[in-house]
Write a sequence for this structure.
């Protein structure tokens, strides 16, 4: 098992290998490669006792510490509140604010008796982190806070969030109210699939029904590509943050709980992912295996117009090997000639149609 795992590693090496795989296709293992594996799997120092960084396109966790540990999560609770509202209410629904909605803590500035749309309240929930907006939305969707909390826990169970339990819709400290960085990441992915949510959490300021709102997320407009998602702060939870960075439509999400410097921790996590992982098109074959001979003797290049993109630890890229599998027919320029396959040691990564090219 160790040989098979380490066979996936690659760094320019000097000297004899430490280990050599026993199966065809296994790679030699060098001390430098083992060190590279350890570096890419070990997060740098953080102030947060629980943290995670993940790639949204592949669903791959790039690094984590105490990923499933239940912890107080403060207003990151509102990720579930927003999810349920978007799943069960129309943005145009009218909501009259009740006196019981005016709880303490962060506020949108609501007044009992005023009427707003669900959309207005979502802005207040996600930008100002309004506890009053959370309560108003919970009472609208669930009929009461208690009924809405039951919906929250039911949805958490449906999603398999085994380290999560809710006691309220806003995140004020309460017994039996907790989540984990892994569960919050999964919630964030679901929320960010909704264009309304995605647009709101990427916005720095907004006016909703006469309420001037400003985001609590200090990464927006400061860290390149930052486009969300939710902060949280309380005595029990410390500084919490679920953050998103996007580049060319590809997203990375970082989650920290119990931090003493949530923005510094998030930046460290994003930089860790950028330093150790690379995305790019699968490499084409080189050397003799990159050519086929047509019936007339003309050499044709083996190519793959629909090459897949791969997302791998940077040190694994030199180990990716391409293999052309012919369909047995005579090669004709511009025509399919079989299949391209890409492997990392003995692991099949991707396939695509192979085509003969005369250029």
């Amino acid at each position: 098992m160790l040989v098979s795992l380490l066979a996936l590693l690659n760094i320019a090496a000097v000297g004899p290998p430490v280990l050599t795989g026993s199966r065809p296709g296994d790679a030699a293992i060098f001390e430098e490669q083992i060190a590279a594996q350890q570096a890419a799997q070990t997060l740098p120092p953080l102030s947060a006792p629980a943290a995670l960084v993940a790639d949204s396109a592949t669903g791959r966790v790039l690094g984590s510490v105490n990923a499933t540990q239940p912890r107080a999560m403060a207003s990151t609770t509102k990720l579930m509140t927003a999810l349920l509202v978007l799943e069960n209410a129309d943005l145009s629904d009218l909501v009259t604010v009740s006196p019981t909605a005016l709880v303490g803590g962060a506020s949108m500035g609501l007044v009992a008796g005023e009427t707003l749309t669900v959309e207005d309240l979502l802005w207040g929930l996600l930008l100002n982190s309004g506890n009053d907006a959370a309560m108003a939305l919970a009472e609208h969707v669930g009929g009461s806070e208690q009924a809405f909390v039951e919906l929250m826990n039911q949805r958490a169970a449906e999603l398999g969030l085994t380290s999560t339990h809710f006691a309220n819709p806003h995140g004020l400290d309460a017994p039996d109210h907790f989540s984990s960085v892994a569960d919050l990441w999964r919630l964030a992915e679901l929320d960010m699939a909704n264009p309304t949510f995605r647009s709101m959490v990427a916005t720095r300021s907004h006016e909703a029904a006469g309420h001037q709102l400003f985001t609590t997320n200090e990464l927006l407009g400061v860290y390149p590509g930052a486009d969300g998602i939710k902060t949280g702060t309380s005595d029990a939870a410390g500084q919490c943050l679920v953050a998103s960075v996007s580049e060319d439509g590809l997203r990375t999400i970082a989650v920290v709980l119990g931090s003493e410097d949530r923005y510094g921790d998030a930046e460290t996590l994003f930089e860790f992912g950028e330093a150790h992982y690379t995305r790019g098109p699968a490499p084409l074959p080189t050397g003799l295996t990159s050519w086929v001979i047509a019936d007339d003797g003309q050499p044709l290049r083996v190519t793959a117009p629909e090459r897949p993109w791969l997302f791998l630890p940077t040190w694994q890229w030199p180990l990716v090997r391409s293999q052309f599998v012919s369909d047995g027919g005579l090669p004709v320029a511009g025509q399919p000639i079989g299949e391209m396959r890409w492997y990392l040691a003995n692991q099949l990564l991707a396939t695509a149609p192979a085509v003969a090219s005369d250029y």
In short: The two ends are 43 Å apart (CA to CA). Residues 5 and 345 are 10 Å apart (CA to CA). Residues 50-276 form a domain with the Beta-lactamase fold (CATH 3.40.710.10). The chain has three domains: 2-42, 50-276, 282-357.
